[in-house]
Amino acid sequence: MEQLLNIPAILAIAFAGSILVFVTHLVLPRLRTAVVLLLTLVPAYLVWQLPVDSPMVYFSLGGFDLSWGTNPYSRLFSLLIAGIGVLSTIYSLAFMKNKARLGFFYLAFLATIAAMYGIVFSQDLLSLFFFWEIMTWSSFLLVIYYRFENQQAGIRYFVFSAVGAYALLTAIVYLYSFTGDLSLAATFRVIPQLSTTQLSWITVLFLLGFGVKSALMPMHVWAPDAYRSAPSPFTALFSGVLSKMGVFGMGLVLFKFMGGLEPGHIIREVLAWMGGITALLGTFYAVFQTDAKKLLAYSSIAQLGYIIVGLAIGTPMSVMAAIFLALMHGIFKSMLFMGVGSVFHQTGSLDLNELTGLIRRMPLSFVTVLMGIITVAGVPPLGGFVGKWLLYESLITSNHYFLVIVLFTSSTAAFLYLYRLIFSIFLGQEEREFDHIKEVSWVMWVPMLILAGMTLVTGILPGIFFGPIAEAMQYLGFPQIDWQMSVLFNPWGNQVDMLSVITSIATVFLLGLAFITWKNFRTTRYVTTKDIHTSGEMPTENENLTYAIDFYRPFERAAAPIFKYKVTRMYASFAENAEHLFDLLRHVYTGNAQTYALYVVIFLVILIVFSGWIFGIQI
Amino acid sequence: MNLNFSPVHFIAVPLFAAFLLPLLGRISQKLVTLVPGIVLLYLSAVALTLFPQAYNEPIVEIIAGWRPPFGITLVFGPLAAFLVTMITLIGFVVWIYSYRFIIRAPLEKYYMLFMLLIAGSTGIILTGDIFNLFVFLEITAIAAYSLTAFLRDHNGAEAAFKYLLIGSFASAFVLLAIIILYANVGTLNMADIAVRMGDVPAKIKLTIMILFIVGLGIEAELFPLNGWAPDAYSQAPSPIGAVFAGIVVKAAVYALMRVLFTLFDLPTSSHFLVVMGTITLLIAEMSAMRQQQIKRMLAFSSIGQMGLVLVAFGLGTREGIAAALFLMFSHAIIKTLLFFSAGYLVFFSGFKNISDLEGVGREKPWTGFFFSLGALAIIGLPPFSGFWGKFYLLISAANASHIFLIVLILFSAVIEAVYYLRVVGRLYFKKLHDIEIRRTPFTGLLAMGILAIVTITIGVYPDFIYELVLPAADELLDKAAYLQYAMMGQ
Amino acid sequence: MIYYITSIALILIGMYAVLVKKNLVKMIIGLSLVDGGLHLLFIAIGYVDDATAPIFSKEGLSAAEMVDPIPQALVLTAIVIGLAVTAVALAIIIRLYDHHKTLNVNKIRELKW
After folding, report:
1. Is residue C27 less than 8 Å (CB to CB) from chain A?
2. DSSP 8-state code for residue A480
3. Hey, are the CB atoms on B171 and C45 less than 8 Å from each other?
4. Cβ–Cβ < 8 Å for A460, A57
5. Nearest to A76, CA basis, from A475, A469, A473, A485
6. Which of A171, A417, A454 is nearest to A301 (CA)?
7. Are the beta carbons of A155 and B407 separated by less than 8 Å?
8. Are residues A511 and A599 in the same domain?
């Protein structure tokens, strides 16, 4: 019995929780922190102890049969939501301290988490869509949380989401007109009976819907500003988990629905290329950002590009890589946003041209961001390496050599922006104005370091993810996949034992470090940045010695022609023209009573004259 | 038949109250405010009592002892029960809201006209007699014209004149249709007409139908007959705007559908309805996009929603009609909520312009909250009732394989989202200019709170309404059964 | 027949007035004309040549010898309604004149778009 009640209980607690927090904030603000903590931890704990194959819950709502349940695939994502959800909530407790309208903030925050649980537990298309839309509006409320200036970003986010959601809805009702049943199981049964054209339409609509949330180009336009505008704790969740809901859906569509789309199908190829282009362009855009969060936002778009490539290729290894990368991205991107958010919290700035030399002021944030960028770059020994390695291998074995080149370029270019991120913020000259900056409180750095630890663990023992992923892939219809805790296989029979790789790297690294420390320990002395002698001149206090400003100007100049053609501008002009058209249209309401009367008479005359044609002859 | 509870009360009691109110006004203004509330509470009670009965077996009430087809009958079937209950309940909420909103004299005129509106709207729905329908239509219309011009300090008169001019056209066409109908079938009882309709030549039948479509279409806000609507909605006092959107239009749509489904064979007109509904929807939503005044924007959105309802009716299937009724219900709730909150927002800022509402939401958190909630609900987001209406409509459209229709409906939903969210954003994210802050009275918040709770409840558990809507849809479709009981077996 | 022609002519004249005349009062007169035409049409439909009023005034009067009473009853109702509408309309016009100082329908266009 208690097994049966679990999923509804989780969702009920989670949703009721969001309202409860709102009420608590109004009635007893002092208890708010405790309530928030309790209401994120309890559902997360319940999700954690939920069995992989818990029995389905069936019920009927509004004349439709709905069902909720878990499977290995949804469990994987539910744990991601629970983990990042709890950590970002804890982080937010300190971050949002003393901010206005906290009840509203936590209402939307917890509702978003609850809706995401709902999405992954849905076993039918209606509840999937239901929760999907709740997630959309609650996250929209958080995007516009700060200021009026975020309006534009918020509305853009909402419009894109709405277009995506409605593509989803169209596909759902279209499918329903064939199946007469909304459950996923029935849908899977009916799909093979559809014609290729119908199937392609449905697939494209679904992919459009899910693609918008995972910011696939050219539907990514909303993402940079929305990520930028949302409060940092939410951005962590937004980019880390919410965008993965798109990935979750795509996985379902590509492998469960569209079993008919064999690898190499045109839709798959197109999707893979869109993913590749997203990865490449996302990276390029990221390089030229001067706002830390926007930089990370573009990076996020690019990373999702990789994931989508993996999903689209559809070989067991590429899918494994994609899901692994999805989980990794969930971890490292929320950790990076938290790190950058901490900097923002302490300094009030996200401008890469302004921030500088914070390494000694905020060492823990530095460590977090450092680990984060190492993971993003895909450098061993951290987790990102494993995912990328798998992805490249799978691309090569499925003969997508050109895509490999694209992704490799993007991956290499990523170093540019990653370096800029860490250099501008933490390294370089220490400025007086940042002297008073302190590390953030432990409430904020503990979640960050937990995530950082996760990247290290997954780098050394990727198997802890491989196990669940392999099970999830079996649910998606793939054969059993061999894996070992720390060993990567590839089809040529080679094995890469991560543990030995890591051990050797670590040994060398530690030895080197020890050597340097030992050699230089005596002669080391601390100097301030300005304590240098340049040709006998002392640098003045406000002289700039580091070059964080216009970091990549040469590249920017070279790339300028590309940036002239922006999709954003295209959409904007489309929207503008549409609005002008609408504005013209409303002039039919002239305000003259006689005109309106004339409309009536003309309408009557038209109906009577063309009655045969309009109503058909028979009556 | 139990005299205490009969469908006649829906018409007689508010009508009586309407005549009584000016007299009461001489005694006490307090009484004038209270009596309509008591009347509406009583009517709601009657509606809820009769409700199960109507669903089991429709109640047919004979007026003045003449049995059908000669006398006037009131038919209280599932459909009528559903709509009348909706109207009385919304009427009651509107009264709660008006209690502190309409505080300037002439109170008795306001409440008298309000009572007439209720009597007329319920009359339209209950009557089984086509001429009676015309009479109630006119009662509603005259009360509506006057209420549009109720506020002296606005352009109410201009709006009322437009409404009156077009409304008179409507009544002329409906009357003409009734005349031609009577000349051909020689009876006025709708069920009787439906029986004898077979003998009428096709051409004449078509003409009658067109006249009804145009005449009732004006009241139902069909494009291009709806020129009066934005003006009337925006100039009438806010609770009356809500009444127009929630009650009057619904009654008019009912009249149109009753005539089309019962008197004529539907399939011939259905494509027409789908097309006209879609055009109405699109033009209204596009026009709403750049409106400067919040109430005018709400008016256009209202027209758009009526377009949706017409589309759903036009599909002509059981699910389609159920969807239409669901949409009518949820729109009545949500639009009333929006008009209520917009009323106080306008009241606070002193302007009707959207740009003047900046930051009002910060000063008036609850009113702003209710407006935002209403906006989310009307866009069709879960977990609010608006979502289910749209979802049912889309499902039935897909089952009728109108894929293009789905695309158009969703396109309009995107437009809707944009203009509503713009307003919501403005409410919260700019500084307020120096205006005097007044409190939203408790009754106003109570009215909005009730509606908000209803829309969320229905959104989470739509079965409440969906199960009521299905038998009502059956009633509209099952002509034979209607004829059977409306004629009382004759 | 003459009744039908007259009534339709009245309706059309009324329509013309509403659609073309710019003066509000003339438009309302047009509306009244339309109404009058409709009422006449309705009566004409119930009219039977050489029949008497539908009252049992003489012994042995059969129903066939009387005109149809229903249209008459209905038209009475319709006349009352028409009167009410006209009254409201005139009241509104007075208000409009106070407000705009004109009766030209083209100049009363504050609410538009």
Report:
1. yes
2. P
3. no
4. no
5. A469
6. A417
7. no
8. no
Separation in Å, CA A158 to CA A110, A161, A574, B335, B379: 19, 5, 16, 22, 12
Q: What is the mean pLDDT of chain B?
A: 85
- For chain A, the distance separating the N- and C-terminal CA atoms, rounded to the nearest angstrom, is 59
- Residue C39 in tokens: 């009422």
Q: A579: Cβ–Cβ under 8 A, 6 or more apart, which residues?
A: B289, B290
Token pair belonging to B259? 């005539």
Two tokens at A292? 């830390």
Q: For A468-513, write each residue's pLDDT tens digit.
A: 888 888 888 777 776 665 566 555 555 666 667 777 777 887 888 8
Determine, for residues A588 and B224 on separate chains, whether the beta-carbon distance falls below 8 Å: yes
Helix and strand tally (H, E) in chain A? 24, 4
In a domain, A457, yes or no: yes
Please give the class, per CATH, of domain C2-53+61-107. mainly alpha
Report the alpha-carbon distance of residue B67 to residue B63 in Å, rounded. Answer: 8
Tell whether A606 lies on the interface with C, counting CB pairs under 8 A.
no
Query: Which one of A590, A595, A611 has the shortest CB-CB distance to B206?
Result: A611
In a domain, A286, yes or no: yes
Closest alpha carbon within chain C to B150: C92
Q: pLDDT (tens digit, 9 = 90+) per residue, B143-195? A: 999 988 888 766 788 888 899 999 999 999 999 999 898 888 888 888 888 88
A370 plus A410 within the same structural domain: yes
Length of chain B: 490
Same domain, A339 and A373: yes
Partner-chain contact A591 C110, CB within 8 Å: yes
Is A176–B398 a contact, with Cβ atoms under 8 angstroms apart? yes
Q: Which of A458-462, A602-606, B196-200, B267-271 has the highest mean pLDDT?
A: A602-606
**A368 found inside a domain:** yes
Query: Does C110 contact A594 at a Cβ distance shorter than 8 Å?
Result: no
Instruction: State pLDDT tens for residues A174-213.
Output: 888 888 888 888 888 887 788 878 888 888 888 898 989 8
Does residue A149 belong to any structural domain of this protein?
no
CA A102 vs. chain centroid, Å, equals: 24
* Domain span at A383: 262-522+543-551
Of B335 and B427, the structure prediction assigns the larger pLDDT to: B335
CA distances from residue B179 to B125, B183, C37 in whole angstroms, order as listed:
21, 6, 12
Helix (H, G, I), strand (E, B) or coil at A400: coil
User: CB-based contact (8 Å) between B343 and chain A?
Assistant: no
For chain B, domain boundaries: 8-486
Lookup result for tokens 């949703």? A15
Same domain? For A266 and A375 the reply is yes
Residues A459 and A406 in one domain: yes
pLDDT at B335: 93
Rounded to two decimals, what is the model's pTM?
0.90
Is the pLDDT at A370 greater than 70? The verdict is yes
SS3 for chain C, per residue? Answer: CHHHHHHHHHHHHHHHHHHHCCEHHHHHHHHHHHHHHHHHHHHHHHCCCCCECCCCCCCCCCHHHECCHHHHHHHHHHHHHHHHHHHHHHHHHHHHHHHHCCCEHHHCCCCCC
Distance of alpha carbon C113 from alpha carbon C111, whole angstroms: 7
Same domain, A267 and A305: yes
CA distance C107 to chain B (A): 11
With beta carbons under 8 A apart, name residues in chain A contacting B287.
Answer: 582, 585-586, 588-589
Judge whether B36 and B21 are in contact, CB under 8 Å: yes
Domain ranges of chain C: 2-53+61-107
Q: Which residues of A245-274 are buried (b: 16+ CB within 10 A; e: fewer)?
A: bbbbbbbbbbbbbbeebeeebebbeebbbb
Q: Six-digit token pair at A129?
A: 């869509």
A228 touches A294 (CB < 8 A): yes
